[in-house]
Amino acid sequence: MDKIYIKIVVLLLFLMGEVAAQTVNIGDLSIAPNTQFVTLFDFNNTATGDFLNDGNCIVYANFKNDGLTTYSNSSNGKTFFIGLQQQLIEGTQISHFQNIVFDNKTSLIPIHLATTIAIGNQAEFNTGIVDAASFNGKMIFNENAFHSNVSDLSFVDGKVEKIGSEIFEFPVGDNVFFRPSYNGTGTNSSNAYTTQYFHENTGSLHPYTNKEDTILSTDEVEYWSVIQEQGSEKIVLSITLDTNTTPSLFFSETAETELAIVRWDDIQSKWINEKGIVSDASVGESYSKLITAQVSGYGLFTIALVKKVPVVESDLIIYNALSLNADGVNDRFYIKGIDKYPDNRVEIYNRWGIRVFAANSYNESDVMFRGYSDGRTTIDRGEGLPAGTYFYILKYNTGSRMIEKSGYLYINKQ
Asked: Which of 10, 62, 268, 291 could form a disulfide with 276 if both were Cys (CB 3.0 to 4.6 A apart)?
């Protein structure tokens, strides 16, 4: 087994007659690959400390970083927060973890995050909710970073930032409720968005009575904050409905109403209707429904029942179902009549807000969506996109005005 090269001291602090020990790094602490470093005591990486973890670091107590905590890009360094007690993660400097595991069973909310930590590869949420909201903490997922095992038993109660342009589920919730949101982060790898979920009223600064006329009833017990930290692109946002937190009213659409995402607009000082397409949860997902819309700004979002938009008379016929079973029938997204309006654009997104197709001058012959992604996706292009509900946006110029239509598109592979 490789050696660990360290320069640390273990301090015994005599406090009120009791002995309290902590591991303090004042120099270089390097954990080599295939090496395990365990600290039963509070770990303190001081301002002069450089902590490089390319192996396995197991932390059973508190973790403080005032220096450099990082890893080498060629390693699989992993840091475990394992419960013998509630654990505080703090410090004046950002802690960079390549892989991190939360597995603390001492209480329902055992991890207190009072600093910023950045994940380079993977965060495993096994057991224990990470409370960042109460301690002004933040978890950042760098480009290509992801997470696993998120549930009501383990998520981030507080701010989560995502950098990059790949598919991402924000692992956010509040109290004991995991309530994720999704948004495509655009096409630029430097784009960054911060999201937080609140199971509470938005307060007097955002009165629900200030709203567009189309909004009938607003979900007043939960909301999401979505902030664009870097970038200038509009996003397609997906937020979740859950019977544990979302009022029953919003599971009962009528012939005159439909669900929509609404956003508080600071300039107009009112809630505005961002519209949306609703899809049911798939097997294994932690929520009941998902609603997706391309939103026009950022800030506070929630769910609302709105007046159903009347169908605008059009000479276009949109066929919103594809059957990818190789029989040559209904194997493309067909918009009858679009050839009359060559100044057009079609964009298609999956239910998590990731764009899978975009084209200008969409037509009835060659520039068409056939169920294969031309965007970033982990799906094998040869296999086509998976069956399910997608979201389209069509914009076309009639010569006198620009018309925009949106709706759902269903892909069936049988």
From this structure: 291
List, for the chain, all residue ranges whose pLDDT scores fall below the cut of 50: 1-19, 377-381
- 3-state SS assignment for residue 115: coil
Q: What single-letter amino acid sits at 231?
A: G
The 10s digit of each residue's pLDDT in 338-352 is 999 999 999 998 887
Check if the beta carbon of residue 67 is closer than 8 Å to that of residue 93.
yes
Q: 267: Cβ–Cβ under 8 A, 6 or more apart, which residues?
A: none
Q: What is the pTM of this model?
A: 0.86
CA dist 251 and 233 (Å) reads 31
135: three-class secondary structure by DSSP: helix
Q: Residues 6 or more apart from 62 whose CB is under 8 A from it? A: 42, 43, 87, 88, 89, 90
Dihedral angle over CA of 155, 159, 164, 168, nearest 10: 30
Q: Rounded to an integer, what is the distance from CA 141 to the centroid of its chain?
A: 10
The structure tokens listed for 289 are: 């429904």
DSSP state of 284: T
Number of residues in the chain: 414
Coil/strand/helix, residue 251: helix
In angstroms, the first-to-last Cα distance of the chain is 53
